[in-house]
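Posting this for the archive.
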Amino acid sequence: MELVANAWDAYATEVSIQWPEFSSKTPFTIRDNGSGMTRNEFSTRWRTLDYDRTTHQGDIAEPPQNLKNSRPRRVYGHNGRGRHAAFHFSSPYRVITRKDGIRCVFDVSQGVRNPIEVELIEETKGDFPNGTEIVALETLRSTFSPADVRSVLSTRFLLDPSFKVDVDGIAVSFEDVPTNLLKDVSVEVADYGTAKLRVLDSSRADRTSKQHGIAWWVNRRLVGEAGWNSFSDKLIDGRTEEAKRYSFVVEADFLTPSEIMPDWSSFREENIKWKTTKSIVHDCIRDELTSLLKTKRTQTRTNIASKHASTVRALPRLSQDRWNGMLTQLVERCPTLGEQQLEQVMGVLANLEMAESQYSLLEKLHNLTPSDLDSWNGLLEEWTLKSAKEALDEVSSRLKLIEEIRAKTASTDTQEVQELQPLFGEALWIFGPQFESIEFTSNKGMTRVIKELFKVTEKGSRKRPDFAVLPDSTVGFYDRPAFDEDHNQNGVDTLVIVELKKPGVPLGQEEKMQVWGYIKELRQKGLISTETRVTGFLLGDSIAPQEGEPSKHGDRTTIRPMLYNTFIGQAEKRMMNLHKRLSDAPFMTKSNAAQEPVQQVLARQNGQAL
């Protein structure tokens, strides 16, 4: 089959095979009248193990000069491995190929240093017709008879009547198709005539569907190309096992050239006679396919039900009935899905029956475009669901935190600064990677010292012991422990102080010194040492003139004034401005009833900026 397919790809119209039957002493030979090869073409193509025919020659074979009125032919081959089939008959074997009046003879063998050894035996100029011949140099007899060979070839190479193959001088025909693999059906087309439908079964699926499909004949001449593209139904497509196994030849001699394009490339689609014939014949083909697939569908359903039996038994009775009903409908209505794909779908549906969300996932998938589904597939090839969810949860929590801080700092309804302070324990990462909040915890002991220093008695302070509520601000303390050489905790390595000033309080020298006062008090109480690295962030809605620079106290203490808007802008940069690209994500568009929607805040802030 591989060597005959190669002859087709070379645009041969005649292929002759001499078969080495077990009782015969004649070596295997296959000869075609195709395009042949030059010396260089043969050396390049035959020496390359995986010669990519499509890349170097394209997937269309042009007719030779003597058949210039014929249509181009779609080739079967792709990777060029079919020519190695000759080694099954002989090693070495001889190739005689003729092209452009030059005849070249090569001996091909399986080498020791190289996988394939090619030796040029002869090169002769003359009046030689194009073509290629492969001759076995040793006789390897086969238990297959010539009739067996014709039988195998008959189910794959009869779709185009212009392509003739003979074995030991006897042409391959429908007479060679085993009776159990051929069915003739008469199709009545009212007012026009009777078409003959031949159903061919190659008994097993091939690697591709290129040698199968529907072929329309008119007076033993092929119209268009054989294949599945013309079949106006989703009952079958070229990817299925059935498409690589079955073929249909339609002999409709009552159709005339008036229904066919001049070059015989297709029928005239608007012709009523052709449209009527096509519709009736396709209905018949559909019925035949349904019958052919019925037994397989029954077996497929049984196999899938068996594989998911334990899972389905664990479902409630109503869910079991629903699952079994879906399996039956999928098998019946989606015959192009293979058994493995059906098994995967039913596994998903069984899991959906057990999931709390039930089938809401299907609704979301249904609303996706094909490109969206491809993107999801690509995402799941690079991420596990767990890792993707962990990453996206972290992104969403940080983006929501930014938007909540943005809304509260922009809203005049935020009367008390203590509404913001609880957010900053989760927002230290915004100040820089060295302040990732996962490493810092609120130090309530330090908070208590400040409360005692200021003699704070506000109720808000008692409700939130992790920060201190002062008359014009709130102060939070977040520390990271230090460790000694034995890895025992030994004091405070780093302290972050976050003081949020109420609107209307400019950040100036007095406010900076107030933070410095906290630090000195904590040192006096022994809660931090001079070795503790301290960074104080002082946030407000305005900074006093000439006070924007940070103040330093020694090498290990820095106090930085910062505007709320600057803080939010820094947060957006640290998140690579994802808030803009993800503004339509569901978690970003959901607004809390007690909070102004994020889009309105953004719009209002943009208006203020303008």
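Residues 272-307 form the longest helix (36 residues). The longest strand covers residues 489-501.
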